[in-house]
Write a structure and sequence with these properties.
27% helix; globular; 4 helices; alpha+beta; disordered N terminus
Length: 196
């Protein structure tokens, strides 16, 4: 079939080579969301990829690009140069994501993806995946005084671990996010003798 290219003012575009698959995708996607036509300005950009289903047919899998504030709950090494990061975000709740190349000396992430750092993160989200991808991250607030004092550090670590264990992924709660951020700010600003 003839290759078609669709694009709107958000640079939301994809290519298709077989029209019936495109029609099936539109019926499924817009049927679920209740939208008609292409996304309007201001809608989060979607990128479309194609994967094969169990029958070998192509299915279109939409992904979202989101930009949100987050607190780093946990980090682990992944391979030789990457990190596996657990975030609690303001708009998406808890997310587990990979930061490729984050452990390289000249990584674009710098020191942003460190424990108990508040960041502005850009992620590619896929509903069918448990592990998301971080494309960009900037540190908004770090807590150097908290990290210097063992007692305050233990309280901050306990708060992050509590959020990690008691929340499920992709269940946003802005009030809980503000509470976690407030706890870390309070531990940073309070004097060492005032911690109880």
């Amino acid at each position: 079939g003839e290759q078609l290219i669709f694009q709107n003012n958000l640079d939301w575009k994809f290519d298709i080579s077989i029209c019936p698959y495109f029609l099936r995708f539109c019926a499924r996607w817009y049927g679920e969301t209740g939208r008609k036509g292409l996304p309007a300005a201001g809608v989060v950009r979607r990128q479309i990829t194609r994967t094969r289903d169990q029958r070998g047919d192509f299915e279109f899998m939409p992904s979202r690009i989101v930009k949100t504030r987050a607190v780093v709950l946990r980090t682990r090494r992944m391979g030789e140069t990457s990190k596996l990061v657990t975030l609690y975000t303001e708009d998406e709740g808890k997310l587990k994501a990979t930061a490729k190349g984050a452990r390289k000396p000249k990584s674009k992430f710098g020191g942003a993806l460190e424990l108990m750092t508040e960041v502005q993160v850009v992620c590619y989200l896929r509903d069918e995946r448990d592990l998301q991808t971080i494309s960009d991250c900037d540190a908004l607030r770090s807590f150097p005084e908290l990290l210097k004092d063992l007692e305050r550090l233990s309280f901050g670590s306990a708060a992050c671990e509590l959020i990690d264990r008691l929340t499920v992924e992709r269940d946003p709660n802005r009030r809980l996010y503000r509470c976690l951020s407030g706890v870390l700010v309070g531990l940073e600003e309070v004097g060492a003798t005032q911690v109880e």
